[in-house]
Amino acid sequence: MTTTPPRVLTIAGSDSGGGAGIQADLRTLFACGVHGCVALTAVTVQNSLGVTGVAEIPAETVAAQIISVAEDIGLQAAKTGMLASARIIEAITPALDRVGIGRSGRTPFVVDPVSASMHGDQLLADSALEGLRGLLFPRATLVTPNLDEVRLITGIEVKDRADQRVAAEALHAMGPEWVLVKGGHMWDDPECLDLLYDGREFIELPGPRYDVKHTHGSGDTLASSISSALAKGATVPEAVRFGKDFIVKSVAAAYPLGAGVGPVSPLWRLAG
Fold first, then answer.
1. What is the dihedral angle through the alpha carbons of 202, 205, 211, 215, rounded to the nearest 10 degrees?
2. CATH assignment at residue 48
3. 241-256 pLDDT, tens per residue?
4. What integer pLDDT is reported at residue 43 of this predicted model?
5. Residue 204: which domain range?
């Protein structure tokens, strides 16, 4: 009999261009050998040039998707992507608690606090940012903000590695078990350093910086690959190291798509 693979739930929005969102999540989860489930939060009108429309899913429907999947199929990890609004964040919080997702339960929970565009513009209302801080971060096993999201969530402008540590401490004080401050937008750092912190120890994760245009979906791909490793029983440092290696190779395999910014590609893992 075939063994059922580990299951990971992504709570995120749909990208009609297929470069980011649940499409990137499911592509990554498949490449990492786990079964991906979905709680859809929004449908976007989106291509390689940007987002021109968003239709939010009713908050109670998002919460019901989480409960339906978790109580029947079972989950070994869960992650978030774009949560769209404070209403959705408030609705999913009791659903997460009901099925044991997050620090109060047994299912690891990765919060990718998608709140800034690739140009650094704010995507979430202030009320939704407060929901991230007050409701989801205290439940998170790991949060994975980029530097624009750090600025929106904490008010800290990260310009160097010293700032990166200050930001990690500020984020950890909001309640997550672990914080990963991604350094991809720290353009003067040739090592593209990501910083992992658990309130006691800083773990530096350097990697190569590629001169590539096509980086759409990089945050989704990283968070999903980390979630897949957690679902297989890895510790947080082990999972983050796996995710770092996975995203480095996915950036190296990025491809053009349309007239704008193409996606990073987890398909490198299927080659050969």
1. -80
2. 3.40.1190.20
3. 999 999 999 999 999 9
4. 96
5. 7-254
